[in-house]
Design goal:
The protein is an alpha/beta fold. It is built from three helices and five strands, in the order αβββαβαβ. It has a domain of 65 residues: Nucleotidyltransferase, domain 5 (2-Layer Sandwich), CATH 3.30.420. It starts with 20 loop residues before the first helix and ends in a 7-residue tail after the last strand.
């Protein structure tokens, strides 16, 4: 041992290999970004459509609400209606817009036959789209 100099034992050799972990992390982030943005770029179709005076935007399909309460009373858009009035309103709605949707709300105590009568009247009127409205299950 000499003065002023400390002897060191066997020194660890420096690492001469490239650490690829950060490179892999960056590449994985780029792949995720590419996977997220690729469908957005592919579906963005830009068209320069011609303009015409006689065109107008299509009306969005609207709906007609028919309800049946616990006593079997029928309601069209929350207004009472007899069987004949129901048939007439359904036919009028079908004439105005054939794509109108019938949203049927029935009390759970209503017999199925009454619901089937309303469905039959809707089909005779020419309405093909019938939706049943229900409450979500409460936990």
């Amino acid at each position: 041992m000499t003065f002023g100099r400390l002897e060191r034992g066997s020194q660890a050799a420096p690492i001469s290999e490239i650490n690829v972990t950060p490179l892999v992390d960056v590449l994985l982030v780029l792949v995720v970004i590419l996977l997220v943005t690729a469908p957005l770029l592919a579906s963005a179709l830009r068209l320069d459509l011609p303009q015409a005076a006689g065109t107008r935007p299509a009306d969005a399909p609207r709906f007609l609400s028919v309800s049946i309460d616990a006593q079997g009373q029928r309601f069209v858009n929350d207004q009472p209606a007899s069987a004949a009035q129901l048939s007439e309103r359904l036919a009028q709605a079908a004439r105005d817009n054939p794509d109108v949707e019938l949203r049927l709300r029935a009390d759970q105590s209503v017999p199925y036959g009454r619901v089937a009568e309303v469905m039959g009247a809707a089909q005779q009127a020419g309405l093909a789209r019938i939706a049943f409205v229900a409450e979500p299950v409460k936990p």
